[in-house]
Amino acid sequence: MNDLELIDDYFSGRLPVEERARFETSLQTNSQLADAVAFYLLARQAAQNEARANQKARFETLRKKSASVRPMPVRSRIALAACLLLVLGLGGYWFFQQQTPSATELADQYIQQKYSRLTTTMAEKSDSLQLGVNLYNDGKLTEAGAVFSDLLHRQPNDDRALKLAGLVSLRTGRYDQAIIFFHRLGEQTDLFANPGLFLEALTRLKRGQPTDNHQAEVLLKIVIGHNLEGKAEAEELIRKL
């Protein structure tokens, strides 16, 4: 497989999670691959721009054709306008209230509902974790993050500390760092329950960079397909995206 095929598979969500991780690691050190990704994204953007230009041209052609059609009688136009006003008056408010929230808004709603406070069971049998959770729940996120970072310095693979440090980064808007923590958590295969992939997907939805929504959807489908922690929430998010 050449680089462009690999890149297309990555951005199309066709790479398995292990190959996706290897691709992201290579991207950080392989300048040729980085250049190829930049070319791919520019080419895709150009194709999208061309498609929009073609669509605009077709619309302009239809508009000119419609302008040559015999105008509707005044009486008919008044009746049509009255019907439209009636429809808008009855249903307009409902329509605008029912607009689908963006992926970022969905993620933000979920974060506020589920992670504005932490349960104390996350820190049982650990004084350091308990201190960090207490600080987190008191809104002292910077101090909580320092506690979790210190714990990770001593125990780099502690799954609870990775999750908590990731949540602090997520809540404080440091999305790149949160993704690193959750990705490291998601790579641990010996846990009874692992929310890493789900939390990484949630963070990507919140960050909202050009490829984040697609990558988040891929992660959510993996969570659902492999019955991982966060499956029910992932199914709900997938329905709303």
From TrEMBL:
Transmembrane stretches, start-end: 78-96
Alphabetical list of InterPro entries matching this protein: TPR-like_helical_dom_sf
Keyword tags: Membrane, Transmembrane, Transmembrane helix
SUPFAM superfamilies in the record: TPR-like
Name of the protein this chain belongs to: Uncharacterized protein
Source organism per UniProt: Larkinella knui
Source species taxonomy: Bacteria, Pseudomonadati, Bacteroidota, Cytophagia, Cytophagales
